[in-house]
Design goal:
The protein is of the alpha/beta class. It has three helices and six strands; from the N terminus they run H-H-E-E-H-E-E-E-E. A four-stranded parallel beta sheet has the order 3-4-5-6, with no helix packed on it. A two-stranded antiparallel ribbon has the order 1-2. 20% of the residues are buried.
């Protein structure tokens, strides 16, 4: 947990009401931005229409994806066949149910916090390991054409 200590007031009216400044600091902390890999972020900021659903991660269209926005997303994430070298930040999308990231040149992925995943398609990447022991809801996994020699279920 991150705690902010107010050392000065940015709003002159806040001197009269210290809670006003405290609430503003809290809101900024609650809506921190996720640090994403550069190309991964570009892909997530692009609104995509699939046959039966829309992928919208940046709800307020501010050009950033906050932790709250990531946690609220409960659909499928599809980032196959893209020029993505890092999926850093994927762990913030704790409630995604399906992840499709075939044929992207990533060497590692952290999905230990994505505990709602029921489907994982991650073939033809450059992975040499995959940790899925926390992903107990997984019903289907495809991870062919990687460097993975062992998978602990």
């Amino acid at each position: 947990m991150k705690i902010s200590i107010i050392t000065s007031y940015t709003d002159p009216e806040a001197r009269m009401d210290p809670w006003k400044e405290s609430v503003a600091c809290y809101e900024k902390l609650a809506d921190e931005v996720i640090v994403l890999g550069e190309n991964f972020k570009k892909e997530l900021l692009t609104i995509r229409n699939h046959d039966d659903y829309w992928e919208i991660y940046d709800e307020n269209q501010d050009g950033e994806i906050s932790i709250n926005e990531a946690e609220r997303y409960t659909g499928r994430m599809s980032i196959s066949d893209r020029n993505i070298f890092s999926v850093k930040g994927i762990e913030a999308f704790k409630n995604i149910i399906s992840l499709v990231c075939n044929n992207i040149p990533i060497k590692k992925i952290n999905i230990t916090e994505n505990k709602e995943l029921t489907q994982l398609y991650i073939s033809s990447c450059e992975l040499d390991s995959l940790e899925i022991s926390n992903n107990i809801k997984l019903e289907k996994i495809e991870c062919a054409n990687n460097q993975i020699t062992e998978l602990d279920l």
